[in-house]
Amino acid sequence: KKIMVLNGPNLNLLGTREPAQYGYETLADVEVMCRSMAAQYGLEVDFRQSNHEGDLIDAIHQSGKEVAAGESLGVVFNPGAYTHTSIALHDAIKGADVPVIEVHISNVHAREAFRHHSYISPVASGILVGLGVQGYVLGIQALAHKRGLAKL
Ligand code: DQA
């Protein structure tokens, strides 16, 4: 079984992008952390990043099919700025009927007002905000526990 970890726009710049906000870990570091946590539940990670809304929608649809086929537990998703703009991603999650844990590295509620609203939250199974890159790891644990998987 697997979990998809999906990253939206600008997260390829993690580590150098506003480190005061997002920390010094790179996306490659996050991938290593995710794989190591997933392995403790015997899970594989399909780790992705795209700067393009349509690619993220396609990935959500794919995960929905994999969940329906019993191959995947769902998606740990940091939609980046599309969080605050994308009705299309909201609809994709709803339409694909896929469990999504929404992750934000920074505490979006302590930042600009335009980051306070999320189109993703109403269709998310759970939300992890402001816990740094640890949020991804906790998201994997959340999906694993949801499915009653014991640690190996
Ligand atoms: C973010 C928060 C968003 O507001 C921002 O646009 C991002 C990253 C986070 O992880 O804290 O790109 O999703």
UniProtKB/TrEMBL annotation:
The record marks R17 as: Transition state stabilizer. This is 3-dehydroquinate dehydratase. Catalyzes a trans-dehydration via an enolate intermediate. PROSITE patterns: DEHYDROQUINASE_II (PS01029). Substrate binds at N78, H84, D91, I105, S106, R115. The active site is at Y22 (proton acceptor), H104 (proton donor). Keywords: Amino-acid biosynthesis, Aromatic amino acid biosynthesis, Lyase.
